[in-house]
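User: For my dataset I need records formatted as: sequence, then structure tokens, nothing else. Please produce one.
Assistant:
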Amino acid sequence: MIQRKQTLFLLIAVALTILCLCLPLGSFTPADTLGGKSVMYNLWIAQPDGSLDFSVWALFAIMLLTCPIALIAIFSYRNRMAQSRFCMFNILLCMGWYVVYAVMAFNMGDAESTFKPALTAALPAVNMILYFMARKAILADEELVRSADRIR
């Protein structure tokens, strides 16, 4: 059911999730300018010396989990209540992503470094809005079907 508006919302959310998985989420800047800047991605932190620290893998796992759930929601168009539950579960996953992101941002840097978030970190919030709009459209469709069944 690609022509439904909730399908478009879910597809845009999947595209933004993939974009979020590929772009940096922020950077750690040390107090002294000689140290260089560490860049935080969903899967790793790129250190100034070129090494990678994979201690932020939980961010990647949460974002990666939302993609197939959204695709399952798209293709389960016959079961609108399950679609609605999938959207709600993705909203909860995005909220969990922000909790993990905040913990990682505050705990990964040393005492002298400052964390500067990137614009990419706002994409899961946009995803939450899109999942909410898709869920609202799904529930409106379900209400329309139930009212049509009542008329018969």
